[in-house]
Amino acid sequence: MAENENRTPETFRLFSSSASNVSSGFGFFDTPESPVPPPPPSVEVLSSEASSSVKFNVEPVNFDGLTLLKGRVSTREVFALSNSDLVPGKYEGGLKLWEGSLDLVKALRSEVGNEHLTLTGKRVLELGCGHGLPGIFACLEGAAAVHFQDFNAEVLKCLTIPNVNANLQKKIQNSKTGVTDSEAATEVRFFAGDWSEIDKLLPYVRDSKKELDCSTENCSVDGYDTILMAETVYSVTVFQRLYELIKKCMSYPHGVVYMAAKKHYFGVGGGTRQFLSMVEKDGLMAYSLVSEVTDGSSNVREVWKLSFK
C-alpha cells in the first residue's frame, strides 16, 4: 500500500449524497433527484496569488528514495467546512491527500525507470490535482510544461501552488550546479474550474480542424503529451465531462493518460471498471493495467494507462 510514512492518506468519504443521483448523459446512470449548484467560473490562478493568510504546514512524503513535500491546510479555515471530503458544486476534496495520488507517483516512477514513459520535454496536465504530487513529479523530471487543474481556485492558492514552490525550491537547494536550462524553461500554470468548461482556458487543447487535415502516420496535433489524474472517477456523474475533456486535451496520436483510482467507490457508483466500460463503449481508446494495490481487506486500487487506438 502506497502511503505517506508520516501520515496515512485519507480514505474516501462522501457526506452529501446529492451528486450521486445526477444524470451525466449515459443510459446506465440514475435519474437526477436534486440538482448540483452551477460550477464557479473557470479562471487561471497565477503563482503570485498563493495564499499568505492560511496556515500551511509542510510535511514530507516518502516514496522509497524519493521525498516530495506537501502542505497540510484546514478545510474549516479555507472552506468553512468540517469533517467533509466532498460537497458537490462547492468543494471537490482537493485539500485531502488521497491514496491514488501516491499510487500514481509510484507508478510514474516505475514507468520512467522502465523506460515505458518519458516526461522530459513533454507537456503534462494534471486533472483534479489537489496536492499536485504527480504533476510535481513531472516537473522534477524536466517536463516542458506542467499545468495543474482543480475545481476550486482556493485549493490552488492555499495548497497546490505552495506545494509546487516548496518542491522546486528544494530541488534548487539540493542541486550543486543550480537550475539547468531545461528546468528553468518549465512552464508551470494553474487553472480552476469545472471539467465541462476548463478546456476554454487550457493552452494545449487539440485543434479539431488541424486534426481533420492530419492524414499521415507522422502527423500530430496539439494537446498534452501526458494527462495525469488520481481519484477523479469517484462518481458516475463526472464520467462524461471528464472523458470529453480528456479527448479534447490529449495529444493525437501519441498522447497517454495515467489514471489512478479505486476499483469501486461504494455508495457513489464510480470506479475504474465503470469508467473503462464507458471508454470501451466509445471505442476511441485502448487501456492497460499498470499497477494494482491490494491488501485483501481494503478497497482495491489501480493505475491504468489510456492511449489512442
Automatic annotation (TrEMBL):
InterPro entries with a match to the protein in the record = Methyltransf_16 (IPR019410), SAM-dependent_MTases_sf (IPR029063)
Recall the GO molecular function terms of this protein's record: protein-L-histidine N-tele-methyltransferase activity
Name the predominant localization: cytoplasm
Q: Where in the cell is it found?
A: Cytoplasm; Nucleus
Write the signal peptide boundaries: none
The record's keywords, sorted A to Z, are: Cytoplasm, Methyltransferase, Nucleus, S-adenosyl-L-methionine, Transferase
Q: Name one GO cellular component term.
A: nucleus
For this protein, the record's SUPFAM superfamilies field holds: S-adenosyl-L-methionine-dependent methyltransferases
Q: What is its EC number?
A: 2.1.1.85
Name the enzyme group at the top EC level.
transferase
Please indicate if the UniProt record lists Transferase as a keyword: yes
The record ties this protein, via Pfam families, to: Methyltransf_16
* Gene3D superfamilies hit by this protein: Vaccinia Virus protein VP39 (3.40.50.150)
Q: One GO BP annotation here?
A: methylation
Origin, by domain of life? Eukaryota
User: Family, per the entry?
Assistant: Belongs to the methyltransferase superfamily. METTL18 family.
**What PANTHER family has UniProt attached to this entry?**
HEPATOCELLULAR CARCINOMA-ASSOCIATED ANTIGEN (PTHR14614), HISTIDINE PROTEIN METHYLTRANSFERASE 1 HOMOLOG (PTHR14614:SF39)
Q: Which named protein is this? A: protein-histidine N-methyltransferase
